[in-house]
Amino acid sequence: MATLFERIISGEIPSHAVARGEAWYAFLDVFPRRPGHTLVVPLRGVARLSDLDPTERHALMDGVVEVQQRLGAHFNTTDFTVCVHDGSLAGQEVPHVHLHVVPRTPGDGGGTLASMWPSTPQGDPDHHQLAALAEALA
Known about the structure:
The protein is an alpha+beta fold. Helix content is 32%, strand content 19%.
């Protein structure tokens, strides 16, 4: 059965694209911890970083840098929280490698990673706001 991210990559589930490469796709998190919170995923659906081959891992990190450049230009920052939950015991909710890229700006509280994930947001995603930001970042 396809993972949530494989369904997003295939277009079965809509997403708000930030950038894409030959081996990765980046899109806005529908429950962002901060404005611009982006997920960067490999196109091949594997659960752990160690399951990716070296070329895929390299491409994935190139994707993270591309996303940082786009977010940095939009949010006028060079600072980011970058996180990966590598496996279910590490808090990975979707069994598909994904890196969180969160732009950090003055006055955002500068909280630690743990403070950004106190609980999972509930309710419906704000697709209108996400679409407008995705368009501005493209």
